[in-house]
Fold this sequence. Notes:
Elements: H1 20-30, E1 34-39, E2 42-48, H2 49-53, H3 62-65, E3 74-75, H4 80-90, E4 94-98, E5 104-109, H5 110-120, E6 128-135, H6 141-149, E7 155-162, E8 168-175, H7 181-189, E9 193-198, H8 206-218
Amino acid sequence: MIAKELISFHIPSISCSDTGEKALALMDENRVSHIAVVDGDEYKGLISDCEVYDLDDDTLPLSKSNPNLMRPFVNGFSHSYEVIALLSEFNISAIPVLDDKEQYLGVISSQDLVKELTKITNANEPGGILILGLNVRDYSMTQVAQIIEGDNAKILSSYTSSQEDSLKIELIIKINRTDLSSIVAAFDRYDYDVKATFHQSIHDDDMERRYDQFIKYLNM
């Protein structure tokens, strides 16, 4: 999904003739802590609630109070992963979207982005989560998929997580099965490191195994 498809059109921008007081009111109304400052279609920057609080007089137009504006943005055709990266890098609650001529199109709020990612990752779909520990050299999604599909299950979503300067990764998989016991057993047979599972087992004695795996995962 690209940035222009994620724009939160309910969140307005403000102009340089608006006041910090108005900016705070709009932030509060839309549950964000940042709002775009735009003149016509020209994006001037992003103002935060903290910046407004630091103004000497928030009843003056921004053109006169001269706040320090940050200027992060994404292109309308940027991938959603780039949107996530910039939201995290700048620690902001909304990111402006510009077209190829750097004209303002709107903003994407972190809240609306989370809603879309929930759909993309099938987070609301019933199923279980499996976390595998792998060496980078041994990573083969083809083999992982074959093991899961060999048990008549399907992968709903997956992603990897790694630490800097590490040769190990974690593969987090959402599977369309609420009980993963037989799938976990299959990975055990193939000597995979099953670091944690989050599912509902039909076997009572699996609760102890899940607890032990969870504690092991937290201590890594």
